[in-house]
Amino acid sequence: MKDKIYSLMEDTINNGKGIYQVDDLQSYVDKIMQHACIISIIEDNSLQGFLAYYANNYESKEAFLSMTIIAPRSRKLGYGRRLVDFCLTDLLYKGFKKCKTEVNENNTAALNVCKKCGFLEYRRTGCSVFLEKEI
């Protein structure tokens, strides 16, 4: 799975649009594989998309949605929204009260999915939009 996530992320990050920013891709993939919850969509042994989120702060009951990537051939099929919905349901069952995320202001698709799922903007810094949802 790690290699599939790396490959999908590498293709997306290097597409020239600049809407995803990861300084060290290998370290990031290692980090999410070790510490994040990952939901994936696999079809014919090919990774169509995934969502990585951190549900490890049981003190504050706040989770963080770190990354959602859908393969170009699988976009416009509702996978992004379904992954976010699954994530939020999982967090609810785990007792979390809030989920936060950070999205590039130029990533219209991600911003639209977040807003459809009930995330509200609470801050902007540079090109980052910070959103949160009460669960």
Question: How are the elements arranged and paired?
Answer:
Layout (H helix, E strand, L loop, with lengths): L1 H12 L11 H11 L1 E7 L2 E9 L7 E9 L8 H15 L4 E7 L3 H9 L3 E6 L2 E7 L1
Parallel strand pairs: 3-4
Antiparallel strand pairs: 1-2, 2-3, 4-6, 5-6
Helix pairs in contact: 1-2
Describe the model:
Strands 1-2-3-4-6-5 form a 6-stranded mixed sheet, sandwiched between helices. The mean pLDDT is 93. It is 35% helix and 33% strand. It has 4 helices and 6 strands; from the N terminus they run ααβββαβαββ. α1 (2-13) packs across α2. The chain is globular. The protein starts with a helix and ends with a strand.
Kindly summarize this structure in a few lines.
The chain is α+β, with helices and mostly antiparallel strands and about 140 residues long. Helix content is about 35%, strand content about 35%.
Which features characterize this protein?
alpha+beta; 6 strands; 6-stranded mixed β-sheet; single chain
Largest sheet, in brief, is: 6 strands, mixed
Estimated share of beta-strand residues: 25-35%
Mean pLDDT: 93
Reading the helices and strands in chain order gives: HHEEEHEHEE
The general outline is: globular
Instruction: Give the end-to-end Cα distance, rounded to a whole number of Å.
Output: 29 Å
Structural class by SSE content: alpha+beta
The whole-angstrom Rg is 14 Å
Poorly predicted regions? none
Strand order of the largest sheet: 1-2-3-4-6-5
- Number of H- or I-type helical stretches: 4
| E-strand count | 6
